[in-house]
Request: fold
Amino acid sequence: MKYILIILLLFLSCSSNNQIIEVDTIYSLNNIELAGLKIKGDLETEFEEATDSKWGFVKGREVAVIRYETAEIARDLGEIAGKGQTEFIAIVEKNIAHGPKVEKTKCRGLKSNRYGFNNKMNINSDNEIGFGNILILNKLKIFEDEIYSENEEAVCVRREPLYSDFVIHGNLVILAEPLMKDYGQGQMIESSEKTIKFINEIINNLP
Reply:
């Protein structure tokens, strides 16, 4: 019984990554920009009855906003949209830890190379790269992108949803990515409470 209770508490803590604020205010894209969002583009996902969906940056972290015609529609359909974009799942295939509807993903749990050489430079030199003991850096640069992409995929522990939490406020669904800290041996993600606090700071800046 004790173990069942522990599992239930863990499930509830992982599921409470959203918040609904009961207001009926209708916000425009201009209102969102005034709150600090520097819009960079549109989300590709088509959200049911959404008027538009934008992504951009606030204070260096990525934020997305899904907008509906009314607050009532946002409350009815926004939670489905928000959960679809923040769905974190247990890894059952490769390193995939996101739901099928998640549009934007990010590798988290990367192993750090802070205290050593970057793996993309750990290649065996031969006579085709340079002459004798002389390394031609420009020639190495030609292969850099390919080497980096292979290494990046190899060290990606979990490919998770980019946005971890969301808040429904008025006719808006606001999603945000969590901050990450690199401790040399790996990465640690901020708590859901801190990410939601950041979203609420954006909401407080709405006109």
Q: What stands out?
A: The radius of gyration is 21 Å. The chain is about 30% helix and 25% strand.
